[in-house]
Amino acid sequence: MSLAWIYLIIAGILEWGWPVGLKLGVTDAGFSIFISGALLLIAQRSIPMGTAYSIWTGIGAVGTFVLGILLFGETASIPRIFFISLIVVGIVGLKIVSTKKT
Fold it and tell me: Is the dihedral of CA 87, 92, 65, 27 positive or negative?
């Protein structure tokens, strides 16, 4: 796995910080947004923009979904898990079929 992909994964994980921060009423969640965006920018130098952005938002969505269940007692119903699983399939699929930018 290239460094760009590692940056992209970290950027996606940092995306979890600002929705959780907003939920908790933390007003300085901007640090998470800034670092996440900067790492996405760096990753897009090697990973196609559409792929990078889709994976970034997908990691953010899946992570906040899981954190919502674990931290805030949100519903973990079978339909919700099924549909979030489709996002995971999309993330993995994009990684598998992605090609390096020329």
Answer: negative
Contact 55, 91 (CB under 8 A): yes
Are 18 and 30 in contact, with CB atoms under 8 Å apart?
yes
Pairwise CA distance, residues 46 & 30, whole Å: 25
Backbone angles phi, psi at 27, to 5 degrees: -90, -10
Residue 72 in tokens: 């805030």
Q: What are 7-64's pLDDT values in tens digits?
A: 999 999 999 998 888 888 887 777 888 999 999 999 999 999 999 999 999 999 999 9
Q: In whole angstroms, give the CA distance from residue 15 to residue 37.
A: 9
Give the Cα separation of 32 and 11 in Å (integer): 9
Give dist(CA 38, CA 94) in Å, integer: 21
Among the residues of 1-102, which ranges form H helices? 3-14, 17-24, 30-43, 49-72, 78-97
